[in-house]
Design brief:
Blueprint (H helix, E strand, L loop, with lengths): L2 E4 L4 E4 L7 E6 L10 H19 L3 E6 L6 H10 L3 H18 L15 H13 L3 E4 L2 E4 L28 H6 L6 E6 L9 E3 L2 E5 L1 H13 L3 E7 L3 H16 L4 E7 L2 E3 L14 H6 L4 H10 L6 E3 L1 H22 L11 H17 L4 H18 L5 H18 L2 H17 L1 H15 L3 H13 L2 E5 L5 E5 L3
Parallel strand pairs: 3-4, 3-10, 10-11, 12-13
Antiparallel strand pairs: 1-2, 5-6, 6-7, 7-9, 8-9, 14-15
The structure holds one RNA strand of 76 nucleotides.
RNA sequence: GGCGGUAUAGCCAAGUGGCUAAGGCAACGGUUUGCAAAACCGUCAUUCCCCGGUUCGAUCCCGGGUGCCGCCUCCA
């Protein structure tokens, strides 16, 4: 039984989709005005793992993630760069997709852009006006939270004593226009600084507010009620709180069954901030010589509701884990045993799968799942000398099956195979390997070791096996 | 000021009202190897942040501290 923590009830709940085994999943996507940083990436890796696990568990998942391609920041920065809004956001959208790919995040089924869903947003706003949830003030339209029953349930606002303008971020002008400080904007009337970014609509010239886009796009693709909505914990209030108010105000139906929020991350023990210069992007990590997929391992290894401290030591640890798994896969490829034995590979796999599932079923306990993977590897390594090719195939298939959830093993292994093929085609390297074997069998160890060192410098590690055999491990990470 | 999260070894990190407190990284010793690499075996938590309470029994439940983190209008 899969249990997940629902922010709405603050409890672990059994997961039961609204429609049999079909799951509608929405996650908040990026505002495309810059490269994504590690904090953003954690959210996307989390949703990816959740989705992969649901699929592994047999659910049919439809995943929708929005692209916010119009807001204050995209307008401001596109103007600064002298590009049109579209040129500007297209650039970062493309970069975003590349970054997701390099941490092996599977793309959502639908990635709708806000600017392409004005109709849907307008229709929700119209309905909210008709039903009295919204009011026009100046050129803008606001949602009146006092009209909304249960407003703030998700964020448990009733328990809180909201500090007015806690962060000094409230715009004083906006303040005058709203009936209540906490009312939020659905439609923003055009202002001079918006330049040529506006839509002519029945509400006048302007653009949509932020919250409305997620309501519009999620309901368009997943229906008025759907199963899971994800996002970073900072979005609980106000973004998701307001999404609920708008959507439920408009449809009169319960919007989302399960809300899941991932915790934030620290960088080397410190808050990410512009002034500390620790807003790492994937490119910056890669420039330091780390394979981007290692970032996925780091982000995934810690439970999603736990604060994660991103460190370069952690990246090294991820590298060691990846290497350990790959080394076992390589050993399975180079097995020499052929005969019958009493090793119960199928039983080992079945037991392991059960433990992996039990761990992940507990609100995605990845640590437990990793522990099981490590225990399996240890057992395989203990038995490696007697495992035969049939058993090796079974074990490899199982590791790749788990990788359907984890999402890094196959990628690292394939990379190894590509490099290995390159080495095998390289006649110069092959010649060196032969020479080394010759020196070695002649007990000319200095010469043999010299060649080994030379090859190692080129990323090729020769591991001797009994007899004349050897295993090539590449410096792949 | 209000609300919430969290504290487990040198580091990362599960977990449980009682039995050996998972797993990984690092380190150290050993087996194997011509030497390595990989692997295996072994060592590595007697305040599980502190104080108090409940209990036959608390790392776990409750209360109070302390540290760190977050939210309180456009941030993943």
């Amino acid at each position: 039984m899969l249990k997940i923590f629902n922010t709405l009830t603050r409890k672990l709940e059994e997961f039961k989709p609204l429609h049999k085994n079909k799951v509608g999943l929405y996650s908040c996507g990026p505002t495309v005005y810059n490269y994504v940083h590690l904090g953003n990436l954690r959210a996307y890796v989390f949703v990816d793992m959740l989705k992969r696990y649901l699929v592994w568990r047999g659910y049919e998942v439809t995943h929708v993630m929005n692209i916010t391609d119009v807001d204050d920041k995209t307008i401001r920065d596109s103007q600064k760069s002298g590009k049109t809004l579209k040129e500007f956001t297209d650039f970062y959208e493309e970069a975003f997709i590349k970054d997701l790919d390099s941490v092996n995040v599977r793309l959502p089924d639908v990635m709708p852009r806000a600017t392409e869903h004005l109709e849907e947003m307008i229709s929700i706003i119209r309905s909210l006006l008709e039903k009295g949830y919204a009011y026009k003030q100046g050129d803008s339209i606001y949602f009146s939270i006092s009209k909304s029953e249960n407003y703030g349930e998700l964020a448990e606002l009733s328990k809180q004593n909201l500090k007015e303008n806690a962060d000094q971020r409230l715009n004083v002008k906006d303040e005058y226009e709203k009936d209540s400080a906490n009312d939020f904007v659905l439609w923003k009337g055009w202002k001079e600084e918006d330049g040529d970014v506006y839509w002519e609509t029945e509400f006048g010239k302007g653009r949509p507010g932020w919250h409305i886009e997620c309501s519009a796009m999620s309901m368009k693709y997943l229906g008025e009620s759907f199963d899971i909505h994800c996002g970073g914990e900072d979005l609980v209030f106000p973004h998701h709180t307001n999404e609920i108010a708008q959507s439920e105000g408009c449809t009169g139906k319960h919007f989302v069954k399960y809300w899941m929020h991932n915790a934030h991350l620290l960088i080397e023990g410190q808050k990410m901030s512009k002034s500390l210069g620790n807003f790492f992007t994937l490119r910056e990590i890669a420039d330091k010589g780390y394979l981007p997929i290692l970032v996925r391992i780091v982000l995934m290894k810690v439970h999603y509701r736990q604060n994660l401290n991103f460190t370069f030591v952690g990246l090294d640890e991820a590298q060691a884990i990846a290497k350990k798994i790959l080394d076992t896969l390589i050993d399975l490829d180079f097995i020499t045993a052929t005969g019958e034995n009493d090793f119960d590979a199928a039983g080992l796999v079945e037991g392991s799968r059960q433990k992996f599932l039990e761990a992940m079923d507990e609100d995605l306990n990845v640590s437990g799942a990793f522990a099981e993977l490590m225990n399996l590897l240890a057992e395989v390594n203990r038995q490696i000398k007697r495992i035969n090719p049939v058993q090796a195939k079974l074990l490899k298939e199982y590791l790749f099956e788990l990788d359907g959830v984890l999402g890094f093993i196959r990628l690292i292994y394939d990379r190894y195979l590509v490099n290995l093929a390159r080495v095998e085609k390289d006649s110069e390297i092959q010649e060196k390997i032969k020479q080394r074997l010759f020196f070695k069998s002649n007990k000319e160890y200095e010469k043999a070791d010299g060649i080994r060192a030379e090859l190692l410098a080129r990323g090729i590690l020769i591991s001797d096996a009994p007899g004349d055999k050897y295993v090539l491990r590449l410096s792949y990470l």
